[in-house]
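Protocol step 4 of 6: structure prediction from sequence.
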Amino acid sequence: MITRRNAMKAGVALTGAVGGAGLLMPALSSAAQADGQTTTDIDPTTIPKFAQAMPVPEVTKPDRISGTTAYYSFEMQEVQTEIIPGKQTTVRTFDGYFPGPWIKACSGHRVVVTQSNSLPTPASIHLHGGHVPESSDGTPMDLIQPGDEKTYTYPNNQPNANLWFHDHAHHIESENVFRGLTGFYTLMDLPEKALGLPSGAYDIPIAIRDARFDDNGQLLYVMNDFRNRNVILANGKAWPYFDVAARKYRFRLYNTSNMRFFTLKLSDGSTVQQIGTDGGLLEAPLTTDTISLTSGERADIVIDFSKYAEGTTIILTNTENAPPGSPASQVMQFRVTKKAADYSRVPSRLRTLPELKTATVNRNVVLRVDETSPDGLGYIDDKIYDDKRVDNTIQYGDTEIWTVSNVNQRVPHNFHIHLVQFRVLERNGVPVTSGPEFGLKDTVRLMPGEKVKVQATFTGYRGKYVYHCHMFDHASMGMMATMEVV
């Protein structure tokens, strides 16, 4: 049972702590949690699994194209959609799309997006993984108030990458994203197109996340409430199925959860080929039976269904914080329904990563939440976020190594830097020389007690950008800081 008082706890603690810092109070849950009222969670075991087809987002067409610039406009709005069979759920969307629209862009070709806000809350839209000017980064206090609009310019001066966009209004981002305010952004380039990877109808983005619902099918949001979010969605449907032909498919996997980490496997133990991570293609395909994604991370994989007979079903399972048989232990089902010609391939060489430069600066970053209370604050270097404070000043063009530590004993974190893609050099003192962390990254896992070294070159744009834990609830609790590139 959830009450308004319980939902307020984290907000009261945070608001009292930051006082005059000009920050926003965390948004509350639905009106069903008003004083004196309670709401009952839906029982996840009563939701039929594999009863709904997983939708595939349509590529959004630009409003117009001028030269090498494509112009888009979206209205952020609340709509009703069917996530659980037979129930209508209110979600927050871009133009009514749930899990979100899909922009396909090309390296070197600008995209300009005008976002108008018809939501009941402010918003600030961040292109996650994008190399963009400060004015278009969607910083936490650069707010679009209800009834207003803002235009963002994305130069796309970076190689192929699986980016995404989401709300970043401080404290509010946690609930806005939980309620659906996300979108896909695929950045392609000519070298990638020439590889012959599965494309067209066989190149599919899948947003995977968890959610919590009341028995009326409405989303139930309570900050830092990870363990009660046990309904798993794939492209906006609870435990859907997806019909596939007996051939290769490219799946761009996005973990759009607020908090949940996934460890994904195929139910028959088969391997997949991982071809990319956050910042685009790996140097070579990685054959693996496990895909691990923390909140905000992406994985680009190819699954070859040609070995399966028609009528075969395979389940995409999750083994992280999900015992076998528990609701969160399954994600979706693949159904092999037909044969199909396949002229795609996965080359043994995908790209050449940029050479690592010599670092000129070393920094230490410490992540921590208060483990003594579920309603505690989040800290970077023992400070909660204050938009008026610059925590690190970086010289334009410098290459830096950041040693990022999770000093908590029980609570996991991850770490995301705006503006740049980085390379993971070490994990717990062991050099990273292969695997998915050897590619370009913008978000990295840190389990309790773990330490990673990452390297980035800060070029392209000057200005103030944030870095933070990308577990949205932790960021809302204050685990965020500001760097200024000068």
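Step 5 (inspection) to follow. The longest helix spans residues 4-18.
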